[in-house]
UniProtKB/TrEMBL annotation:
Residues 68-88 have a biased composition (Low complexity). GO terms for cellular component: glutamyl-tRNA(Gln) amidotransferase complex; mitochondrion. This is Glutamyl-tRNA amidotransferase complex subunit Gta3 domain-containing protein. Residues 52-67 have a biased composition (Pro residues). Residues 82-138 form the Glutamyl-tRNA amidotransferase complex subunit Gta3 domain. Residues 44-88 are annotated as: Disordered. Transmembrane segments: none annotated. GO terms for biological process: glutaminyl-tRNAGln biosynthesis via transamidation; mitochondrial translation; regulation of translational fidelity.
Length: 222
């Protein structure tokens, strides 16, 4: 009991220090909260990195420019490209012929086309450089979840009614629909068509039909 009595005043005297430590901890936790506005205001990546750098103009000199003679030679724009992204005028003309497109009418149009194709090719190379190991390829733009696959799958439950209309026929047991089943299917189809928004029978002019299908006779050997 004596130790508790003597420790009581000591704990009361240390209470301000404990409260100060709690306040410091609370202030540090508030300061550690990230400020998303400041983070997003300083982007660390740009889509321009997927495009080739713009051609740098040659440095200007104070010396007078040399006299040149105007000729009909084609001027080309020098761009910083790698060998696998360089497109020559012959490549451009070959691609235009394959696409049945007209050739450029002037050297300026040719340079613009080459620059555009090199930009596209540089972007494609950047996309191809992405590591896709372990990523399943996209088969189509649709819902590829298990629930969507199960909803689009045609199983035995969907075909049970059609299979019940068939009977084995012949020695090999080939399935064949009975006449009663065909008549019942045609009646069900007509009844369902009568309740549609457009009550008309699309197979009305068919000379011969079986259920939802019209029968066409073909010659042997064709």
């Amino acid at each position: 009991m004596a130790s508790l009595r003597t420790s009581g005043p000591r704990l009361w005297a240390m209470r301000p220090l404990f409260q100060q430590a709690v306040d410091v901890r609370r202030s540090s936790s508030k300061a550690a909260k990230p400020d998303f506005t400041s983070i997003l205001s300083r982007p660390t990546w740009s889509v321009r990195s997927l495009l080739p750098p713009e051609p740098t103009p040659p440095p200007q000199t104070t010396s007078p420019p040399p006299t040149t003679t105007t000729t009909a030679a084609t001027t080309t724009t020098t761009t910083t490209t790698t060998p696998d992204t360089t497109i020559t005028p012959s490549h451009l003309h070959h691609l235009l012929r394959l696409s049945a497109l007209p050739l450029p009418s002037s050297p300026h149009d040719e340079n613009v086309m080459i620059h555009t194709l090199q930009s596209h090719l540089h972007f494609v190379r950047a996309v191809q450089a992405v590591d896709t190991r372990g990523v399943a390829p996209l088969r189509s733009i649709r819902d590829e979840t298990a629930a969507a696959d199960a909803d689009q799958t045609i199983g035995l439950d969907q075909l049970r009614y059609e299979l019940e209309l068939e009977r084995p026929f012949g020695r090999s047991g080939r399935p064949r629909r009975t006449k009663q089943a065909v008549t019942a299917a045609a009646t069900a189809t007509a009844t369902a068509t009568a309740h549609d928004d457009e009550p008309w029978d699309v197979l009305q002019t068919a000379p011969r039909r079986a259920g939802n299908y019209f029968v066409v006779k073909s010659r042997q050997g064709t």
